[in-house]
Each structure stands twice: as C-alpha cells, then as structure tokens.
Amino acid sequence: MARREIELRVNGRSLRGSAEPRTTLADFLRDELGLTGTHLGCEHGVCGACTILLDGRSVRSCLLFALQAQGSELRTVEGLADPDGPLHPIQEAFSEHHGLQCGFCTPGFLMSVCELLADDPDPGEQEIRAYLSGNLCRCTGYQNIVAAVQAAAGKLREAGAGGPGGSRVAPRGTGGPGG
Amino acid sequence: MAERWVGRRLRRKEDRRLLTGAGTYVADLRLPGLLHAAVVRSEVAHGLVTHLDVAAAREADGVVAVLTAADLEGRVGRFPEGARTEISPALVEKVPLEVPSCPMPVLATDRVHWVGQPLAVVVAADRYRAEDGLELVEVDYEPLPAVLDPETALDPAAPVLHPELGGNLAARFAFSTGDVDAALAAAPFRLRQRFAMGRQAANAMETRGVVASWDPGREELTVWGTNARPHLLRAYLAAMLALPAERVRFIAPDMGGSFGTGVYSEDVLVPFLAMHLRRPVRWLEDRRENLTTTRHARDQVHDLEAGYDADGRILALRDRFLVDSGAYNPYAITVSYNAAAHLRGQYRIDAYAFEGRNVLTNKAPVAPVRGAGRPEAVFAMDGMVDLIAAERGLDAVEVRRRNLIPPEAMPYPMGMPYRDGVDVVYDQADFPGQLASALELFGYDTQRARQAAWRAEGRRMGIGVSSYVEGSGYGPHEGAVVRVDPTGHVLVVTGAKPHGQGLETTLAQVCADQLGVHPDQVTVRAGDTALIAYGIGTFASRSAVTAGTAVGLAAQAVRDKILNLAAGLLEVDPADLELADGRVSARGAPGTGVTLAEVAAACAPGPRSRLPEGAEPGLEAQRYFVPPTVTFASGTHVVAVEVDEDTGFVRLLRYVTVDDCGQMLNPTVVEGQVHGGVAHGIGNGLLEEVVYDDGGQLLTGSYMDYLVPTTAEVPPIQVGHQTFLSDRNPFGIKGVGEGGAVSPPAAIASAVADALAPLQVDLSELPLHPERLFRRIQEAKARQRGSGGLKPGPPVERGST
To answer: Longest Cα pair distance anywhere in chain B, in angstroms?
Structure first.
C-alpha cells in the first residue's frame, strides 16, 4: 500500500512522516514519530488509554487514521512537561495523590483531564467522574484519580492562569488549547 | 538519628517516568530489523483440524514466515506440567491428590480445544501485514461436540477433550478435619446450598507482549515480556528450547498491571521465531485476544452443607466444589486448593471437609487471578452465613460476629495444611475487633437508620458485610542483592517484579532504613534474570513480604559491613556509630565520620582496600529469604447498596474496608492496592463475565461486552487499618495486593440480599449484573404470586434433626 506524506504539529513542533492510509493515528504516533507515551489498551475505542488532544479536543487515537490528522495540532502526554523541567500541575497532582499505579492508562487520563480542566476549571466530583468514565483503570479504583483532578484544578486556579483552561493547561509553545 | 522511611507515605519513585510517557513497556521497545508476529487461532471450541493450508499466507506481501505445529516438531517442547511445577511436595504428603498428566502444546496439532487456541503464527514486516497474512491461512475443522459445563463434563457420556485421559477430570483432592459426619448429624439445623461464580478475566490494561532477540554468534537469547515471573519464564524457555539457562535472559520491563500469572504459547513461540529467523520478533496481544485467551479465572461451583445451632453458630461444614479449568490445567490445584484453604476465612468451624475437583471444558484455560480462589470461596461462605441468619431469623452481621475466631484463640490452628504443605495457623489478629472497627467506620447505626427510612419510602437499600483471610507471601523464597556503589548510591536487585504496585518505592524505603540514606539514593532493579541467580516473582500477594524481607536482610548485612569497616577507619567501637544521611558518624556527632562512598572505596578490591585480611571485597550482600509459610492478612468489608427492583441495577452507596497487613511499608501504596482490589471485586460482583454460547463461541470479546468498572460504578472507598505484626518474617509484613479483591462480591451479594430480603431472591450466582438480578427478582416475585405468600425460594434445601 502506498505511503502518504503527513505534516502536522505535535506538542508545538512541526513534524512530518509517512503512513499507509490504513495506519491508525496511534500507530503513527508510536511507530513513525516515536512518541510511545500514548498507549494502546483495546484498539476499539473503549479503554481511553490512547486519548490525545487533536486541535484541543480529546480523541481516541486508535479510532482515527493518521491521514485524518493531516495539518492538525496534536498534543500528547510527552507535551505536558519539559523533559528536564518540573511536572505539569496535573501530573504533579497525580503523583501527590497516588493517582497512578502501573501507569499504562495514565497518559490517556492525563489528556482527558487536560480537556476537562480547560473546559471547566472547577469541576465537582460527579462531573469529574462522569467526564472520566471513558477511561478505564484497573489499578487505582479511581478515587485517587478523582482526588488528583480536584487538586490539579486547584493548583491551576491558584497559579492564576486566568481564563478558561488557563495557559498552563495549554500545550507548550502554543497559545492555548488547540492554539 | 536516621530518619525512618518504612511506614511513611512517600511519593513514588516510578511516578515521573510513568507520568511523562517515558516508561518503557514491551510495546515501546524498538530493535533494528524487528519483525511482527500474529497468531492464527482456533475458530471452533472443539474439533479435529482436517486441513491447515498456509501456502497463500506465505506468499503474501511482507510476510516472512508462517509456522505451524509441524514446524515446531522436535524443536520446541510442550509446556512443563503444572502438576510437577506448581504443587508443593509437602502438600502431597498430607492431602491425597489426583492430577492426571495433560501437558499443553505450544501450537495445536490435530485437535483444538477452545476458541482462541493458537494454531499457527504469521511473521511479517509489520503488524498490519502479519494480520493480512492471518486472513489467508485456511483451516478446515471436523467439529466435535463441545462441553462447556463442568458438571456435564464429568458425565461419562460427555465428550472427552483429551482422549488419553479417558475423561475430563483434571484434578481431585479431598481432606477433612474434625468429625464432619458426626457433627453434621448432631447439628440441630442443617442447610445445603449451591454457590456459583462466573468466569472472569484479569484485564490488565496493558495486553501481553513478547519481544525476542537471538544473538547467533554467542548463541544467546534475550526475551522481553509482560510477565512477573521472569525466572520461571527463563526456566521454561531453557527447557523447551534446549538452551543453557544462563544463555537465556528474560527481562520484564515496565508492566501495565498483571492481576494474575500465566505462561502462554507466545512466550515460547516468539523466542523460537527469533532463533529460527535470526531476527528480532515481536508479538503484541490485542484486546480481543486478551479477552479470548488470557488469564480467565473464577468459574467455580461450590455445594455447601452446614450444620448449625439455634444461635446461628456453625458446627460443621462440608464443601464439594468444581473449578472449570477450561481446556488444560496448567496451574494444577493452585486456585482450587486456595478456595478450600480460605473457605472458612475468619470463622471458627472445627469440623470441615472438602472435596475439590478441576474439570476440563472447551473454554480457555484458567489462571490464578487477583484473589485466586478466595473470592469464590468467601462468596460461598458468607452467602451461607446469610442463609443461616435468614433461616434463624437473626441479624446477618450478628451471626457473622458469633462465628468469628476470638483474638484470645490466636494463633489459631485450622486443622489443615496450606498449599505449601505447612499447617494453617493464623497469625496474630483480632477479627471481632476488625468487624467492630469496620462497622464504626461505616457508621453502621446511621446507615441502618437510613435504610429504615428508605424502606418506608419503598426504596430497597441493603447493607452487606464480608470478611476474609489471605495466606500471603507464598514462598518458597525470594532474594535480594544490596550494593553500595563507588558514589555512595545504593542498588537493590530482587527477583520479584513490580507491575504497578510501587515496589521500586517500597523496597527502597526498606533499604533506606537500614543504610541511613534517603530512598532517592536507592535504585531498585527487578524483572531481569541476569541480575540475580534465583527469583520467584510477583503474585500471591508475596512481594512486600518475601522481597521486602530479603531486601531488609541484605541491607542489614551491608549495614553490618559498613559499621565494622568504618569502626576500623575511625578507630571507634561499631556500637558507637550510626548511619544517617549517607554517612557513618559517631553517635551524637552527625556530619562527622565517613561517607558511604568512602566506605565503598575502602571495600574495593586492590591495593587501596582497607578490608581486613580475608574479607570479601565489595560493599554488597545477597540474601534469600525462605519464609516458614505464608502470613495471614485479613480484612472486613462493609457496603451499602440500593437496588432498583425494576431494572436489576445495583448502585453502591458506601464502601468501607478495614485490613490487617501487618507492617505497612507505605500506607498510601497499601491503600492504593486496596482501592484497586475493591474496584476489581466490584467488577467481579456486579459486571464482569466471560460468556460462551452453547457451541463454545466467545460472546464477550470486546469491552462493549465485557464490562470493566469505570468511575461511574466504583464509589469512594474508605480504608482503615489494624496492625498485627506477622511473626513469620523479621519486619512483621503481611501481603495486601489481592485482599481488596476478595470480599467485594460476597459483601455486595450480602447487601443485595439484605435490600431484597422480603423477596427471598436467589443470589447464589455471581456476577449480579442487571440482567441476571432482574431475572432473579422476577422469579422471586413469580414464586410469591404462585404461593400466595413469602416462602423461601427453591434453591435452598433445608433439613433439621
């Protein structure tokens, strides 16, 4: 099958690669771009481990073809914190509240939470639970994840990020969610 | 004084890499020239393979090789038998066991036994092409009748899976303590009831995967895989591929959960392919394959008979039970004997007899999964207690209390051997205290008042309690190496394998205490057979107990060496020295003395060595901990539910646990284990079921059909602790990894029974997913209408003397 060129921005960087039309976006990210932080747990759109942000909205990268992301702005778990810098407040809250164990589902949760807190800087517990019901975790029993999200929301509000979502939720090097 | 790290809520060392996408799971490994494998699987539950044609697949674009059983003949052995590898010789001396030989092939030959059994493997340039190749493999079957029910399978007229066995019995064992017949005959009341728990699957979020690389020059094999028993895998590979063990290196990198154990065809197939093709090969399981063949569990039917008195005190108990093992029985009696050994849990029942049988059916082989026989047994036991209470018109919680082993009876001998062959004697514990503390945390009186108020409004709320013990920290051993490097940094190596529970942190805490360093100064490496000679791995809630103890003992030995050497260097008595902040100093004079790096330098071999004559160079020690037997952890769960009678939907209102896992290494990690276990147990009690149709086709091959609990179903879980130190290891640790998953199905069933008490609904079969519960409620209502009143349901056989 012929490969097609794909150009897109990932975590604030312009990248180029090629993929067959049938290649999923998740496989393209992992195999072609080497961004293995995005995990595949079911490959049929239920578990949410492969969740990334595409133009600011959460998507299941296992349910999209790479070609559908042509020209898009993607954000993956690798874009949350500088490799040598401090953790993003959401990551920090997950660690503080023991919101992860094996870490396999974690990148998907983190990206879903990015979207949630961009939409609503102060979600209630029920709202968090409803929002995250599309991400499966087998280790934590979820309650520390919920606590981490509440704490992350507090941190982001406290940081005075200002405005819905706040600049610290935004991808590094971009103006805002989807920016 | 040095800071003490054990018992602290330290943040985990592994978090940063896992949070930034920098973890390395099997699927993240990249090797040059990597080929990709996909497995051809049986599409029928039982049949003869009449035609297997791989020619077209071999010609397909990008396909490098297609192998069938014929290609493995004489080159890859069958799996070692569970009967030999999994059963303790000490147990065989005490319990009569019958476990016929039935070794599992890597690829099926002329006969297939379950949907999903591996038949052939396609290797290609990428996964997409490998799966294209699968489509081109032609398989014809002559279907044979499938048998899916374990009772039917034992009928002499049933189809036989493995003709050489002459039947479908995979294991049988029986034992009794006390005079059960006499005690049952003498009991004022007797009840019989069947309890069944459906088949469920472990569902680690990371599916299985294997990557293998063969170095033809050195004739060495390196295998990376999602398996928490690296040394066992290495032993299997060495035996099955006829290689010296030290030329096989098995590495388990980061693992995305596990929740069970198991060795599978691909674990051997992929390494063989790498050797055969002389190129690295990778196989990654997809979720459909995972749900089809990986770590199925539960699937037990218990027939209980209890004798009891007017106060609900149980005087005798008999259990005859079946474990549906699926098509093979690679773990022999691991799960079934666990069920028998844990059935009585916290209850004092001195007359107890059991007969367990493993049965072969045309389903995927079962494996030990979180709880491993205990959730099924606890559900049956607590279900029986509920029935006894109902029969006597007593409060179910009160009947539980009356039957608990009192603290003054501890350590309590249970009159039977554990799976390791050592007699079961419970550790120090206070079961009634645990129940009282769980009820208090739960706000029992308040919740009962709420229940009464809701009942008045017609709402069906119920409260359920379940307790368990868990033999944790199974042996036979685990080892650790502790080494101080030239920079003063500490390396810990162990044969146990973290798969998400935070062992890198907790083992570092244990080591840090002994050496007076910060846990950040300790690196923990595990899951690599090249690092330590012997290892058992992570399962059976054993790693904190066994590896934790081994790390502590090895670190103590290093500490002794440090103090002795520093005493020489500083010319003081070792007893006057202390270790803190990475230094050895005279007591009361922190900051003086020598650093660990300086001591390490003095231990190096060569002319600068300051070691005493004859002392072994190096600042390191290796210790293997051989536990005398398991430690008995325990827990009590209390849950409140509301049942929607019209839909069969169960909503969890409140969930409380109190556990005793002895010395906690890190309470936050312990609570995380409990939370996850309870969530798993909620799934097992309410949602999760592997379903086959009558022909043995799997109906639950996706997450649309197999329901794993989400944030919407798992309520906040409130966790309390008791701390009774185990005397079976020097640090007092008991295991906690699985306990959380043991009691939820029983507690939830009990709460549903309480909520629906007036209806006498049959709750003897789990999970209580809405469809099943709705049906049972309808049946109960029909019975009531038919009989014109509230009568006990038919499943309970009653007899009194």
So the answer is: 97
Q: How confident is the model at residue B792 (pLDDT cuts 50, 70, 90)?
A: very low
pLDDT digits (tens, 9 = 90+) for B532-566: 999 999 999 999 999 999 999 999 999 999 999 99
Q: Are strands B248-251 and B220-225 parallel, antiparallel or unpaired?
A: parallel
Tokens of B15: 């978090």
Contact partners, residue A23, CB within 8 Å, separation at least 6: A32, A65, A66, A67, B128
pLDDT tier at B129, thresholds 50, 70, 90 = very high
Q: What is the band of B798 on the pLDDT scale with cuts at 50, 70, 90?
A: very low
> Is the CB of residue B678 less than 8 Å from the CB of residue A141?
yes
What SS3 class is residue B658?
A: strand
Q: Rounded mean pLDDT of chain A?
A: 91
**Is pLDDT above 70 for B380?**
yes
Partner-chain contact A141 B679, CB within 8 Å: yes
Task: Write down the number of H helices and E strands in chain B.
Answer: 23, 31
Whether B648 shows a pLDDT value over 50: the answer reads yes
A51 touches chain B (CB under 8 A): no
Helices (DSSP H) in B242-333: which residue ranges? 265-277, 287-293
| pTM (2 d.p.) | 0.95
**pLDDT over threshold 60, residue A174:** no
Selected for mutation to probe chain B from A28, A92, A143 (highest B CB count within 10 Å) is A143
Tell me if chain B has a CB within 8 Å of the CB of A130. yes
Residue B1 has what pLDDT? 54
- Listed in sequence order, the residues at least 6 apart from B471 whose beta carbon sits closer than 8 Å to its beta carbon are B338, B341, B342, B418, B419, B424, B540, B629, B630, B631, B632
Burial (0-12, 13-18, 19+ Cβ within 10 Å), B118: buried
CA B610/CA A38 separation, integer angstroms: 51
% of chain B surpassing 70 pLDDT: 98
CB contact under 8 A, B672 and A94: no
Query: Residues B5-18: pLDDT tens digits?
Result: 999 999 999 999 99
Instruction: For residue A91, give the nearest of B19, B23, B704 by CB distance.
Output: B19
Distance CA B8, CA B148 (A): 49
Report, in angstroms and rounded to the nearest whole number, the Rg of chain B calculated over CA atoms: 28
Helical (H) or strand (E) element with B779: helix B770-787
Consecutive H or E run containing B798: strand B797-800
Distance from CA of A164 to the nearest CA of B (A): 24
Alpha-carbon distance of B86 to B171, in angstroms, equals 13
Average pLDDT of span A18-32: 97
Query: In chain B, pLDDT over 90 holds for what percent of residues?
Result: 93
CB B462 within 8 A of CB B650: no
Closest residue in chain B to residue A45, using alpha carbons only: B703
Judged on CB neighbours under 10 Å (0-12, 13-18, 19+), B96 is exposed
The ipTM value here is: 0.96
Measured CA distances, B365 to A152, A155, B97, B308, B685 (Å):
43, 48, 20, 37, 21
DSSP string for B229-248: -HHHHHHHHHHHHT--GGGE
Query: Measured in whole angstroms, how far is the alpha carbon of residue B261 from the centre of its chain?
Result: 7
Rounded Cα gap, residues A117 and B788, in angstroms: 57
Handedness of CA A115, A119, A123, A128 (dihedral sign): negative
- Residue A170 has what pLDDT? 44
**Cα A78 from chain centroid (whole Å):** 9
- Please report residues of B whose CB lies closer than 8 A to that of A38: 21
C-alpha–C-alpha distance, residues B527 and B592, integer Å: 38
Task: Output the pLDDT for position A77.
Answer: 98
Residue B135 at interface with chain A, using a CB cutoff of 8 Å: no
Please report, in angstroms and rounded to a whole number, the separation of the first and last CA atoms in chain B.
67
